[in-house]
Amino acid sequence: MISEDLVSTCAELERQELTSPTGEASPQEYAQLLAIYLCQSDLCNAKFLWKRIPASAKSSNEELSLIWKVGQCMWKRDYPAAYAALQAPWSDNVRHIMTTLQEELRSRAIDLIANAYSSIALSDLAAMAGINDREAERISNERGWIIDAETEMVHPVRPPPSSQVITSSEGQLNKLTDYVSFLEN
To answer: Is position 73 within any domain?
Structure first.
């Protein structure tokens, strides 16, 4: 779960970009904003941000390209490559965000596996979660998943369904209006 701190930082960075006299943020601010968008799995906004970042900012800050490399891997759903790209040395400016992104990716992958797979090879589980086989085995045991030692297959246990909040028609219409308004502007 993304912290409220990152959500408020995202809003502040967006505000700074919009209100800056030149209409541009600093490369460090762009790096933080891009990393937060990725952390929120907001790949569309990340892609639009990448396109509007000035070439001079991209060339003066190599870290922006490294962050975007992670975004490209996420866009292609190449999670093993995303985990590899996340191993880059990060500056203090984005290190905590990239660590949170790595944890979020791993958590989403494990939740996806729990909900989508009846069995998966231990090595595939490890690759999808960006961990080694031993760590995958530990996580499987913690979750009560069954591991067949002979075939090295993991049998995830599907979590109980959560109570879903039913949205009213008016709420759905408001959400659709917000999406359309966002796309038109």
So the answer is: yes
Q: How far apart are CA 176 and CA 71, in angstroms?
A: 26
Within 13 A of 143's CA, how many CA atoms are on the CB side?
A: 22
What angle, 0 to 180 degrees and rounded to 10, lies between the N-to-C axes of helices 27-39 and 62-75? Answer: 20
Look at the chain and report how many structural domains it folds into: 1
> 111 to each of 28, 93, 143, how far by Cα in Å?
32, 29, 11
Q: Are 10 and 36 in contact (CB under 8 A)?
A: yes
Contact 140, 147 (CB under 8 A): yes
Please tell me the distance from the alpha carbon of residue 3 to that of residue 20, in angstroms, as a whole number: 26
Give a yes or no: residue 137 inside a domain: no
Q: What are 63-101's pLDDT values in tens digits?
A: 999 999 999 999 999 989 999 999 999 999 999 999 999
Angle between helices 133-142 and 122-129 (to 10 degrees): 100
| pLDDT surpasses 80 at 2 | no
What range defines the domain where residue 57 resides?
Answer: 4-89
